[in-house]
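Bumping with the actual sequence this time:
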Amino acid sequence: MDQPNGSNAKATRVKDGARDLPREISLSYAITIIAGCIMGSGIFFTPHETLVNSGSVGLAFIVWISAGLLAMGGGLCYCELGTSLPESGGECVYFTRSYGQLAGFLYVWMTGLIVRPVSQAVECVAFASYFVQPFYGASSPSSLVVSAVGIVAAVLLGVINAVSSRVSVRIIAVLTYGKMAALVGIVLMGVYWGAMHGPGSLSTGFAGTTKDPKTLGLAFYGALWAFDGWNALNYVAEEIQDPQRNLPKGITAGLLLVIVCYVCVNLSYFTVLSKSEFSESVAHLVGIKVLGQAGLLFIPLCVTLSTLSAACGSCMTSSRILVAGGREGFLPRVLALVHKSRSTPIIAIIVHSFLSSIFIAGGTLESLVNAFSFIQWIIYGCAFMAVYVLRWKEPYLDRPYKVWFWLPGLMTLASAYLIIDPILENPSYLFIMLLLLPGLAVFFIFIRQQMKCSALRQLNDSVTMASMKAFNSS
């Protein structure tokens, strides 16, 4: 077991001379990053899926509250991990310290190169769909136009994040305040409609509640997808001012804000619409029913603000996974380079934006959402267990925040249910794990060999030195 290290290596561990990222994220910005990354397209589209799989309004409402509590439980576990190891990259650092290099690399392989770029691609496509819709009136824009606008959004967000993290954080904050105001508008629609026309589908209560635990699991998946992003602050822990204090405060305050918003917005949906009126465009239907033609402009505005904020936050936070991968030697070291004057990981941001653009151009993103939610909960389960593993392996590690002993175990059990339930419903989910096979091949053929082969190390060093000059980075 490790002995005390006093300063926790100042809570940052920089590999191979790579620079620290500056601490520019205050508590208020930390809260807006959490809220901005969570509140994307999910609250506008998943209520229909949650209601269908729950069977009743009452159970759907309980599912939303429970999903919020699960997210809060997960967030508290991540508070301990993030304050103990406040470095860029989140789970990449936690898995490497807890389970070893192979686990850390496979995380970067699955999440940094596939899951997170796809997640941003989904938000950019949702933004593009609603941004261009008013220009097409009653008709629908072509998929080519939507993809083109989505790629432009991904590239522009990448440029903004590469130019200045400070500007990016402020943009996230402004967009988050805007979408909070828009969500308050939806809540006020529900209050007005309830006062004029009664409680709507809320009056049906628990009528039609499902008794199938498999479909209930799918209902949770929809709600939890809308809450995904509660770990975003851990990716940029290295950049938070006083992370030992502000990271826990940012996660808990941001999540409480989101939970209250989601509960109130769902109450508004249930008040305005009957069960039979619910569809995937639930927010759109509420806007038209209450505001008439004005709703055709108001709801797209809500969605564009929400998705653009989430996409901007995703670009900022997800690129730090690639930074951590470069520092640990799982990816080319150039990804860990930080621009000398702008203090941004410019190469990692470029690569992340490029991957997101590729997935946008490839299409079929909707079919990937549930698949990657499944992967995400495997990762979360491993992270919750890492709390116990690190307490055992590194008992002297400074832990400014220590979560209740029972909570990581409870969250691990919840993760196990959310992993097993989809497999029982659809065994084809197991085929997703085949994505690990090329990752294993890359690790044993290239990563392990690079540690032994001087030629591979020299190649990596040469590329790094050339990139340092080309991108004015160190």
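The tokens above came from a reply further down the thread. The CA atoms of residues 147 and 360 lie 6 Å apart.
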